[in-house]
Write a structure and sequence with these properties.
Rossmann fold, five-stranded parallel sheet, 14% strand
Length: 143
């Protein structure tokens, strides 16, 4: 367990999207600050291994073409985000959170990981931010 790691944050797809597409997005500056503190070594950013897939899917629906998506994949890999596989135990914890809090399983995976690691979930998703299972930082709308 990593609860002794200062500045451990779990980012969800709503945050990662803002790193690549600013148009029509709120809280972009806050999302970039999370990434910058990671790059400077002040925080350790991690996520479920599903994050890159969800990110690429979201960006595809925002209009990025195959070449742009390939570039995003390369950039994402260079960020050195710690990705955690979802084994049966992780899926079971996510299922318990999803059913008790009315979240989708894939959203509950992020909550479950933050709870398991003793980190803070950083999200722009208000429904997910309502979790009672872990510490949460909801990115607010840009002023």
């Amino acid at each position: 367990m990593a609860d002794d790691v200062a500045g451990l944050v779990v980012v969800d797809t709503s945050v990662a999207v803002k790193w690549f597409v600013a148009e029509a997005e709120e809280s972009v500056a806050e999302a970039h600050l999370v990434l910058e503190t990671h790059r400077l070594g002040r925080t350790h950013v991690c996520a479920p291994a599903a994050l890159p897939v969800e990110l690429m899917n979201a960006l595809m629906w925002k209009g990025l073409d195959a070449g742009e998506l390939a570039e995003v994949a390369d950039i994402f890999e260079s960020l050195r985000i710690a990705l955690f596989a979802s084994d049966a135990a992780a899926l079971g914890r996510a299922a318990a959170i999803a059913t008790s809090e009315g979240l989708a399983i894939y959203d509950a995976l992020f909550v479950s990981l933050a709870a398991e690691l003793g980190g803070e979930l950083v999200t722009a998703d208000r429904k997910q931010a309502g979790t009672r299972s872990c510490a949460v930082r909801l990115l607010r709308a840009d002023a």
